Amino acid sequence: MTDLVTHEVLFTAHTDGRDLALSEIEVALPGTVHRGWLAPDVGWVTLAGGWPDLVTRFTQRPPIFCRHICPAHVRIPLVQADGDLDALVCESGSLAGLLGPEPFSVQTRLLGSGWPYGPFDVNTRLAEVFARRGAPVDVRHPVQVVSVVLAPDEAFLGVSRAIDNLSDWAGGARRFRRDPDQISRAEFKLLEALEVFALDPPAEGLVLDLGAAPGGWTRVMRSFGAAVVAVDPADLAPALARDPGVRHVRALAQDYLPTEQQRFSAIVNDMRMDARDSARLMGMAAQSLDPVGWAVMTLKLPKERTAQVLSAALTLLRRHTVVTGVRQLFHNRSEVTVAMRSRSACRPANGG
Ligand SMILES: C[S@@+](CC[C@H](N)C(=O)[O-])C[C@H]1O[C@@H](n2cnc3c(N)ncnc32)[C@H](O)[C@@H]1O
Predict the structure, then answer these.
(1) Peptide bond before 214: cis, by omega within 30 degrees of 0?
(2) Is 300 an active-site residue?
(3) How many domains does one find in the chain?
(4) Fewest 10 Å CB contacts: which of 90, 220, 243, 350?
(5) CB-ligand 1 contact for 126 (6 Å cutoff)
(6) pLDDT at residue number 35
(7) Which atom of ligand 1 sits closest to the CA of residue 237?
(8) How many CB atoms lie within 10 A of CB 339?
(9) Same domain for 211 and 98?
């Protein structure tokens, strides 16, 4: 019989942040048992509580390193042959009662290689079964998700609200199409941050980009319309060097910031340096942030004492900004992305 309040949960995280992701779940629900890693970036836990308890705890205190979570209401043995699809169709019937009338999608992940079928085959077969309950399929904006994770010898299937999974994307893997004019892969990090933190890039005014070279983030911000002050001792890509909307300040941020007189609608910072040093410089830059502006930065994390360094950097940032989000995004490597607002936006109009 299907256990509606399942205790089995799969989560994804970067391999270098996966132990921190696991401890986020263990702290949320002490007594949770780690069942193992189904893949280097996919963990399995049996919760000391139900799936709704984890969702509640994560809503109260959003995780940083857990990229995606999903419940596993049923587990089905697999033999890695075409017959698996019939078994999935047959067994998933017990899950159909968990699906409400809202739009849904089936998100399938195949762990490992050598599968005789692909995610699309599984999605198509299962979507047919679930759609018979009357809910429409909506792959782009599902309200509910049927998560299907195929590990070599068993499948994990669960139904949840998309919003509870921490990401709308299967396993939290947000992929973007490569733009032919793309300057650096770092662009994906900024695009993902804008989406995850729901930030509106300014169409006019000025943006400050600290650690701008070769210019991917500058290009992304320019594409929305605002002019960019790009600070970096290194060269920018030739296309940006020719752009009259880009002012390249060939200097270190610590030398440039004390001289800055302008107001910025947004500040982005991807400087490769110790997280605490970058946070200190961001605090200085935040004095020039428009009261309704926002800032985004990456914090590069060391392999050792990761949590302590992150905590120290966030404390420094909170002195000068309001931190509105911290996540290790799909496109981050050994770093997390932080979203902030100006502190002055939160002060009463009389400045008291
Ligand atoms: C990861 S790259 C930035 C990539 C950029 N966001 C993009 O999309 O192309 C890091 C940059 O930080 C710059 N950097 C490191 N220390 C800096 C400092 N003190 N001031 C300014 N830039 C710095 C480096 O020169 C390097 O170009």
Answers:
(1) yes
(2) yes
(3) 2
(4) 350
(5) no
(6) 98
(7) 9
(8) 21
(9) no
Is the CB of residue 298 below 6 angstroms from any atom belonging to ligand 1?
Answer: no
Reported as a pLDDT band with limits 50, 70 and 90, residue 91 is confident
> Do 259 and 140 share a structural domain?
no
Range of the domain at 194: 186-346
pTM to 2 decimals?
A: 0.94
In a domain? residue 134 = yes
Reported as a single tens digit per residue, the pLDDT across 276-322 is 999 999 999 999 999 999 999 999 999 999 999 999 999 999 999 99
Nearest protein CA to atom 8 of ligand 1, as residue: 216
Q: Cα of 267 to ligand 1 centre, how many Å?
A: 14
Distances (CA, A) of 130 to 82, 133, 136, 323: 20, 6, 9, 40
CATH number, domain containing residue 195 = 3.40.50.150
Q: How many CB atoms are closer than 10 A to CB 20?
A: 20
Q: For ligand 1, is residue 193 a contact (CB within 6 Å)? A: no
What separation in Å is there between the alpha carbon of 180 and the centre of ligand 1?
Answer: 22
Q: Are residues 72 and 212 in the same domain?
A: no
Asked whether 229 and 247 are in contact (CB, 8 A), the reply is yes
Write out pLDDT tens, residues 116-131.
Answer: 999 999 999 999 999 9
